[in-house]
Design a protein that fits this description.
Layout lengths: L1 H6 L2 H11 L3 H7 L3 H12 L2 H10 L4 H12 L11
Helix pairs in contact: 4-6
């Protein structure tokens, strides 16, 4: 859901690729991977405006997106490296 929301906006898509290093071909092959899912949610959570807009667009509370990101980050809170 979150990735679909990002990909609907060309500016967000370009920024997502620039910041994460994940290109469409990478995403197709790794979408089920926790590191990719974490990178997607990290991207949204890193910018309050993006987080609020995504939450609104996805009909979710922002806290739910943050909680999902936190769950993927694991007990140390660091999660996976983007583009790894």
């Amino acid at each position: 859901m979150a990735l679909s929301w990002i990909l609907q906006d060309e500016v967000l898509t370009d920024r997502f690729i620039a910041l994460t290093g994940l290109f469409p071909d990478d995403l197709r092959g790794s979408l089920a991977e926790p590191a990719t899912q974490s990178a997607i949610l990290d991207f949204l959570v890193a910018n309050d405006g993006d987080l609020l807009a995504a939450a609104d667009g996805l009909a979710l509370k922002p806290e739910r997106i943050v909680a999902a990101r936190d769950a993927l980050a694991g007990p140390d809170g660091r999660g996976q490296e983007w583009g790894a």
